[in-house]
Design brief:
The protein is α/β, with parallel strands linked by helices and 283 residues long. It has an 8-stranded parallel β-sheet with strand order 3-4-5-6-7-8-9-10. Strands 1-2 form a two-stranded antiparallel sheet. Helix 6 links the parallel strand 8 and strand 9. Helix 2 runs parallel beside helix 3. It starts with 6 loop residues before the first strand and ends in a 17-residue tail after the last helix.
């Protein structure tokens, strides 16, 4: 299967490319611009950024440099914690679209459910932000809306009042930290699961189980970690600014892991959570 023809159909019928290019820690400037362009020229059609990454301008420049038509790209950004609330979220969207140089965004996500600045106002701020997202979705300024870092209790709170169900829940998910409860609950509600840090900041690549499977399948450890996400039905978002690594991370087709190998990787528990816990993130 070609990466450009690999899609997951979201609950609203929108087709989202099921392998994304992450841009977290890609600094504003030449590296980010060239990384995004290289990813698109390699075949990626799903680009993930956020206002917090401080690189939206460069992501937009990379898209234009790539020569790939805008309507072929699934562009994602996120509203940061300090911008939670109805009016704040609408303003944040406008600022992101301006920096990216686009007139619509394919998917807009709430970056964290509980914002440090508004911790005493959870869940009100969270729900107000979602109402703003629903307005943007109704205006067709965005093609899909979703959340990040939500555990089942966050999703249950949101679903009580949401008129539009989140299309995606983007969570930390990798070998050694499967987030089974959050992933399974999302899937049960028809919410697609995206995996940030699918190679566990490189920690998954040193696991003996992953290295053994790399030898077995004639692949790299990174390809095994990314393919595990795909075979589980999740959408991985690997990130790199190195052209060779960008190509390696995209070359995950033409093979799949056996059920026994997936089960073996599911049982790995050597890594654990690398990011913040959603209810008490310090930002």
């Amino acid at each position: 299967m070609d990466i450009k023809n690999f899609y997951k159909t979201l609950s609203n019928g929108v087709k989202m490319p099921a392998l994304g290019y992450g841009t977290y820690k890609s600094p504003e400037g030449k590296l980010c611009v060239e990384g995004v362009a290289a990813a698109l020229q390699t075949g990626y059609r799903h680009i993930d950024t956020a206002s917090f990454y401080m690189n939206e301008k460069s992501v937009g420049e990379g898209i234009r440099l790539s020569g790939v038509k805008r309507n072929e790209i699934f562009l994602v950004t996120k509203v940061w914690n300090d911008d939670q609330g109805y009016d704040n979220a609408l303003r944040s969207f406008e600022e992101s679209a301006r920096r990216l140089g686009v007139d619509y965004i394919d998917m807009l996500l709430i970056h964290w459910p509980v914002a440090f600045r508004y911790r005493d106002e959870y869940p009100e701020r969270f729900l107000q932000t979602w109402k703003a997202f629903e307005k943007l979705y109704g205006q067709k300024a965005v093609r899909a809306i979703g959340v990040c870092n939500c555990l089942p209790h966050h999703l249950r709170t949101l679903l009580k009042t949401a008129e539009v169900k989140p299309a995606v829940n983007q969570i930390e998910l990798h070998i050694g930290y499967t987030q089974k409860e959050a992933a399974d609950y999302s899937v049960s509600e028809g919410i697609a699961v995206e995996a940030w840090s699918p190679v566990a900041k490189g920690k998954a690549l040193a696991l003996p189980e992953v290295r053994a499977l790399a030898d077995k399948y004639g692949r790299t450890p990174a390809q095994i970690a990314i393919r595990w996400c795909i075979d589980k039905g999740y959408v991985p978002l690997p990130k790199s600014v190195t052209p060779e690594r960008i190509k390696e991370n995209a070359d995950v087709f033409g093979f799949s892991l056996s059920a026994d190998d997936i089960a073996m990787l599911d049982a790995v528990s050597d890594i654990g959570r690398l990011g913040s816990y959603p209810d008490d993130c310090p930002f």
